[in-house]
Write a structure and sequence with these properties.
Elements: H1 7-24, H2 31-45, E1 50-52, E2 60-62, H3 65-79, H4 84-102, H5 105-108, H6 116-122, H7 126-146, H8 151-160, H9 164-184
Antiparallel strand pairs: 1-2
Helix pairs in contact: 2-3, 8-9
């Protein structure tokens, strides 16, 4: 079964889901949950990383300043990860898996290992593609934490709430991303980036 939604309908559905998330629970944002996952693993390796702290608003604390900020909010989320934000990230992963099963090249029997524009520019090496994807993901996540939020937090939720940081992030992302894509994929063929 191959289900494809027109891009406009997909955008409208994304907007509706984001609107309901903001109205009913809180703004959408996911990059913080990677910090929470790191803290969970860190606490399993060194059990004194997160400790009970009745002086903090959330009841937990850490010697790590980042985990301890906001009244121990991140430390508490790492100790008790079954919260809206963490479940939301798990649901995103499950949704992406479901999407891959219901549509795309796999459903057509054409299982594509990498985008044509990548192959034409950098060749068919899978290891080069995986290294580039991992490094890119690392830098995107590092940048998201440096900026105080990711694209879902700043652009989707932020712009929806008319946040100045959302608009600034949007402008910066496209002002840097568009020329960078043109430079990286130069020679890939006119019109193939659309």
């Amino acid at each position: 079964m191959n289900i494809r939604l027109p891009w406009l309908l997909g955008g409208i559905l994304l907007g509706v889901v984001t609107l309901f998330a903001v109205m009913l629970v809180k703004p959408v944002g996911v990059s913080t949950q990677f910090v929470v996952l790191d803290a969970m693993v860190w606490d399993m390796v060194a059990p004194d990383t997160i400790v009970e702290n009745p002086d903090n608003a959330k009841g937990y604390g850490s010697e790590n300043a980042y985990l301890n900020k906001s009244g121990g909010k991140y430390a508490a989320n790492a100790k008790n990860p079954l919260n809206y934000s963490f479940v939301f990230v798990i649901a995103m992963i499950a949704g992406a898996g479901l999407s891959a099963l219901l549509g795309g090249d796999k459903a057509k029997g054409k299982r594509s290992e990498m985008p044509d524009v990548w192959r034409k520019r950098f060749g068919p090496s899978k290891s080069k593609r995986y290294i580039a994807a991992f490094a890119s993901g690392f830098f995107v996540l590092f940048g998201a934490r440096l900026a105080g939020g990711c694209t879902s937090g700043h652009m989707m939720s932020g712009i929806m709430q008319t946040s100045l940081s959302g608009y600034l992030f949007f402008v910066a992302a496209f002002a840097i991303g568009t020329p960078l894509a043109i430079i990286v994929y130069r020679g890939a063929g006119k019109g193939e980036l659309s």
